Amino acid sequence: MINRKASAHWQGSGKEGKGQLTTQSGVLSDQPYGFNTRFEDKPGTNPEELIAAAHAGCFTMALAFQLQGAGFTATELRTESVVSLEKEGEGFKVSKSALTLTATIPGIEQAKFDELAHAAEVNCPISKVLNAEITLKATLSQG
Question: N or C, which end of the chain has less CB nearby within 10 Å?
Answer without folding.
Answer: N
